[in-house]
Structure formats: structure tokens, C-alpha cells
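Researcher: Re-running this chain for the archive, since the previous output was lost when a drive failed. Same request as before.
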Amino acid sequence: MNRVVAILLGGLVAGTLDILYAFVVYGPLSFGISPQRVLQSVAAGWIGREASRAGEWNTALLGLATHFLLATIMAAVFVLAAGALRFLIRPALLWGFVYGLILYVAMNYVVVPLSAAATGHFATLADAGARLQESFSEVRGGAKDYPWLIWGTLFTHTFLVGIPIAMIAQRFTRSS
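Model: Regenerated C-alpha cells:
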């Protein structure tokens, strides 16, 4: 039961911190994007950018659900790994930071490039290799006009996602 609580709480906390960061940074601090558009950009992973933008609040809600689903999956992977590899819960700050770096690479270089966000369709087996090769050939997480965004993306994956998940895992898996 403690692992289930750790997974759900980890997903909720990490998902909330991450999406609030996105609302602020991609909103008033840089591009002026509304929270609805931020959430639609998450939904674009399923249905492509054009369809996501056309869907108004329906696709924004799809994006919100997707965001928290992904955060919960991220928490589940760490909590289950920490159950098998007990060293992952001590020190939580170190392993949470490392996990956040892994999540940064997984999301920016694998998940997003294989999604429908850029092309409007998921990668097929035929084009997956090409998409991944292109993905790993460039630095992701920022924009040319805002080069500091890569550091922000690393920050959010490590300090707002990885570390909170690891700290919650440490708290709830100690006794299980």
C-alpha cells in the first residue's frame, strides 16, 4: 500500500510542480503562451499540433490528463525500482537528481521525437530510427531566442520532478 501512495503522491507532486513551472516560464517569462496552449502542446503528442490547437479546452484537458499520467508513470518507475534497488532511496537528493537527468533525456530525445507532436503522427517502425537519429543529433530543451530554456528544462526535470519523486519514494518505501 505504501508504494501505491508513493506512486500517486509522487505523480501528483511532480506533475503539479512541473506544469506550474511550464505555465510561468512559457507564459509571462518568455513566449506569452496561455496555460491552455501549454496543455495543448502536451496533447499534441497524441494528435499533432494542428489538431491539438483546434480542439480548444477539450485538447487542453487531454493534455492535462496526459501530463499527470506521464508524471505518475515516472513516479511508478522510480518507486518500483527503489523497491528492488534499495540504494536508490538513500540519498534521495542524489538519486532524484540522477533520475531527473534520465527523464530529461528520455522525454526530450525519445518520447517527444517519437510522438505526433512534430509531424502529426506517431513514428512507425520505418521512421523511428530516423527520428531518433535526428533527435540525438541536436541539443533539445531550448529555443534559439531563449537559450536559457535548456537549463530550465534540466532544472524542472531534476529539481521539480526527479527529486520530489525520490524524496516521496524514500518517505513511503522505508517501512515496506
